[in-house]
Amino acid sequence: MNRGSIKRELRRRLPRILMNVAAAFLFWVIGQVGPLFVKDLPIPGINMPPPFNSASSIIGVTATLIATIFIVKAILDGLLFVDISAEIITRFLGIREKKPLKRIGRDIVYILLALLITAASSPILSSIPNIGGYLTTAISIVALGIFLILVYDIGKVIRDVLRRKAKRMADWISSFLEERENRRR
Amino acid sequence: MDTVSTSFIMIYLLTLLLIATELVPMSVAALIGALFALWIGTGYGIFGYEEALGFIDIRLIGLLIGTMIVMEVAYRSGLFRLMALYIIRLAGGDSYKLFIILCIASAAVSMFLSDSTALLLIAAAATTISRIMDYDPIPYIVSTSIMINLGGTSTLIGSVGNMIIGLSAGLSFADFISYLTPCELVLWVLTTLTLCWFYRRRLGEKKPVPEFDPWEGIEDKRLLFWSAFLLLGFLGLFTLHDRLNIPPESVALGCAIIALAISRIDSAEIFRSIDWDTIFFLIGFFFIVGGLEKTGILKDVAHMLIGITGGGIFLSTAMLWASGLISTIVSNIAVALTFTPIIRDLGLSNPLPVWSALIFGSNLGGAATPISGVVTVMAIGALKKEGFKVSLAEFTKAGLLTTFTQLLFANIYIIVRFSL
């Protein structure tokens, strides 16, 4: 993905993400506040066991469900940016391999390096008075971030391999069926 | 398992992965591992700096450097080239005869030369001959790389792995000959016949050999005779070092000094040709294995091995196949360095069968695939330079076939030799 297309995607998706997050927040607030106004109010016609026949629980559950849908939509839009940021970080780390096995190998190398640097620097950092604890937490969070991004990259590589294999298999099956059809004619 | 133990396992895996992904050279990978091992080991109070320095086996480094210098001087004198050319003349244009002689000569030369030097020597001879005789060089080069890997198993100085195991187990040069050579000789014949059968249709037809003088390329005959004399003395002293009560590293370093003194070759040039990559790899790996040993992980592995196999001949069999299969992927030096402390921790009354199994396993797995060892990678490189491309599948077929045959026979030998 080049810079232009990243900008275009950003312009298209960012407002959508913000709107979805805002809507999710609104419905979450409704889910929290709404039931307080209709407390103990039964709804006739809904044959559900209590407490699911009360207006408060129905408002609560419905609002939470709608908020979840908006959050999922925001996450789906946001995933592209996770892809982009993962690509930027892996490139920054020097992982440019196209061969899946080698790329996974390098991802694991960097995961191990991040974890080992954290483990090795912990005793040194924690011995610094006053800020030692904060520094240890900060470096652990950075290591965890790198860990998650690289594990995501491994997942992406595996998904691409599986997609390629599935496509090849589908092509093979379709050509096989076509050949059989032609032979029958 | 605590944080430190997990960290040391991660350091070990990181080093192996750094080598496998070729992110950095082998020696740098081990030194990165050593840096982490020192950092974490001292940081968490597992060992101190002084204690960590003791992890390096200086005797092994001495043996390695000494042997490399002696062999480099002998190599530069043209002694090995002369031997190779006489062998080719002996074949008399018969492709089968040439193939068999080349195979046996490769194994014999690599008993004393490092695998990479032996391959350079034999591959150069094999490509020249196949060009002259118009033979396909692939069967010859692939087979010599497999035989060179096999030949290195036979002696204490045949491979770095053997030096590690030999010094750690207290096995002398003569012990290697007495315990391993009977099996080795059969393996040479078995592997040559297997390769002969595998490549039967590609060896070429019988043709007259063009005239050549083996002595033509020898520039300094004095150096050649001195080298031959020194090499004989070197081997003689190695054979008798335990009776004379001289440690093998003293023999190697002593002969190296004499070789440097008599060769008249610029010593800086000889020092530059030492395989520093292997030496620094060893130094780095010593720290990693030392750390693993200190955390008690290797002891746990040893107990687990005893628990699973129940000791005895099953333990030797497990050691043979485990080290053999692992060294098809991992460098055999790393395999030897990892398994050596484990065998020491087993506390066996007669550890000889297990040591023998490790020697066979760690060496024989080194030529199973094109990426199993330096010698196989170099063989493919030599063929590429000549304009020939050997497929991964073809090499793996030949490599796996011979490795499996060798491991199977070595297993039978260990059972017969040590339990009857």
Q: What's the topology here?
A:
The complex is a heterodimer of chains A (185) and B (420).
Chain A: H1 3-37, H2 55-92, H3 100-126, H4 132-184
Helix pairs in contact in A: 1-2, 2-4, 3-4
Chain B: H1 3-20, H2 26-43, H3 49-53, H4 58-77, H5 79-91, H6 95-109, H7 115-133, H8 137-151, H9 160-169, H10 173-198, H11 221-244, H12 248-263, H13 267-272, H14 276-295, H15 297-309, H16 312-326, H17 332-346, H18 352-364, H19 374-385, H20 392-419
Helix pairs in contact in B: 1-2, 1-14, 2-14, 4-9, 4-11, 4-12, 5-6, 5-7, 6-7, 6-8, 6-10, 7-8, 7-19, 8-10, 8-19, 9-17, 9-18, 10-20, 11-12, 14-17, 15-16, 15-17, 16-18, 16-20, 17-18, 18-20
How would you sum up this structure, described in words?
The complex is a heterodimer of chains A (185) and B (420). With 185 residues, chain A is mainly α. Chain A has helices at residues 3-37, 55-92, 100-126, 132-184. Chain A has 2 domains: 3-92; 100-184. Chain A is built from 4 helices and no strands. In chain A, helix 3 packs antiparallel against helix 4 (132-184). By secondary structure, chain B is mainly α. Chain B has one domain. Chain B is 76% helix and 0% strand. The two termini of chain B are 41 Å apart. The mean pLDDT of chain B is 86. The A-B interface holds A 102, 105-106, 108-109, 112-113, 115-116, 119-120, 122-124 and B 3, 7, 10-11, 13-14, 17-18, 20-21, 23, 36, 39-40, 43-44.
